[in-house]
Amino acid sequence: MRIPVYIGLIGLASALSGCESDGLEAIDIEVPEGYALSAGTSTLFVNSSVAYDNEAPWVSGDYLTRFVRGDRLYDDVRTSTNGEGGGLGPVYAGYSCGSCHRNAGRTRPALWNDGGSGPYGFSSMLVYVSRKNGAFFKDYGRVLHDQSIYGVTAEGKLKVKWNYQSFSFPDGEPYELCYPTYEITDWYADAIDPKDLFVTVRIPLRHVGMGQMMSLDPTEIETLAAKSNYPEYGISGRCNYIVERGMTQLGLSGNKAQHADLTVELGFSSDMGVTNSRYPEEICQGQIQVNQGSMMGLAYDCLDISTEDMENVDLYMQSLGVPARRDVKDPQVQRGEQMFYEAKCHLCHVTTLHTRPRGSTLLNNTTLPWLGGQTIHPYSDFLIHDMGSEIMGVGLNDNYVSGLARGNEWRTTPLWGIGLQERVNGHTYFLHDGRARNFVEAIMWHGGEGEASKNLFKKMTKTDRDALVRFLQSL
């Protein structure tokens, strides 16, 4: 089936031909039987283990060259030596972007595999620590770096204990929920009193639709926030505004919409200890001396990665194709989609949004106009919502404030590509800390503004619950 898709004309005159319509150009896209577009001209019809990790169809020429270079920088293991591919550490959380985002997805979390901090130089998670009054600890900052290069002591190690409780749906089908409790051991400085410590852990996000997210029309998101008030269901989403680069901006990325961009520079600095033009100091600078030498003494005078290389990584992430929806004519999938709407999931997981006409601009001002003027289906409103704290006495409140987002508030997770996570990464751990081991558990952890949808799902027949899960698997 061929359907017309409109794409911004800026920079495309030599690449495409066709009729104009309000500054947009129509091109035909061949949509295989049983599929549906997810991201306009960035849609890919790939279902394999690399479904998240292919360039969009419009990527060519110099952009393709830079995409390939960005892909390599994203995946290549960094070392502690200085120079290209170096600069790792002295302390860090992962040795490459791809170590935590395998195939641009979510590497299986060490929380489950290793009971906390993992071996071999990465843990596929970030450990946030703060005082109970919200302040950071002088010797640790906001992230506990649980890995280190040779000769340096890691800041600490995380251990997790899983707590389980059994439940049943009204029709008698059992299900189980579990939540983590954390302990930090092997502090490199004085141990922090648990009574003054909040710990929250984030497993990696899928890097699906990053360019589309960066191209969203902010007015549309703000309009959603103004209209996202459904008192009959207890829903009232709001925008997270944050200050970055000296400007107050609409937050879009991250678990709490706490960033306005893809945080490439922050990722290199905080996650890998790689100095750059935005973060020129080692992440351990100003911390105490540790045994076997000073972290300060391990800093280099030159930056570990150039702005140009970081922009290539930014380009790679924003130019990835988005997997198409699959099995759209399957009767069970169609029934599940109906149940998705009947459970009011769509009030937060908004099915259709639009990108602004000019697309996105990368961190060093390269533009991607191909992302402009697109109708996309991310299944998110990119707003923050209260997800509750009452389930099992803990809920999804992690007591960590990000911008305007309180501990119990989380950005609506985009669902596109979620049905391929098991194929890409070999697991179905969901939510910010991976506590949900499957779709059903993820739904049943919804509290607060998600309580009404959870209860509507809970009251469905098993056939309809299974159909809704099958719908999610088709995304």
Keywords:
475 residues, alpha+beta, 2 domains, three-stranded antiparallel β-sheet, 12 helices, globular
Description:
The protein has helices spanning 61-75, 97-100, 110-113, 210-214, 218-227, 264-271, 307-318, 331-342, 421-425, 439-444, 451-459, 462-473, and strands at residues 2-8, 20-21, 24-30, 35-36, 43-44, 91-92, 126-130, 143-144, 147-148, 157-168, 174-185, 198-202, 229-230, 235-236, 241-244, 247-250, 322-323, 325-326, 353-354, 360-361, 367-368, 375-376, 384-386, 409-411. The model is unreliable at 9-24 and 290-297 (pLDDT under 50). It contains twelve helices and 24 strands. With 475 residues, the chain is of the alpha+beta class. The two termini are 19 Å apart. It has a three-stranded antiparallel sheet, with no helix packed on it. Strands 8-7-12 form a three-stranded antiparallel sheet, with no helix packed on it. A two-stranded antiparallel ribbon has the order 4-18.
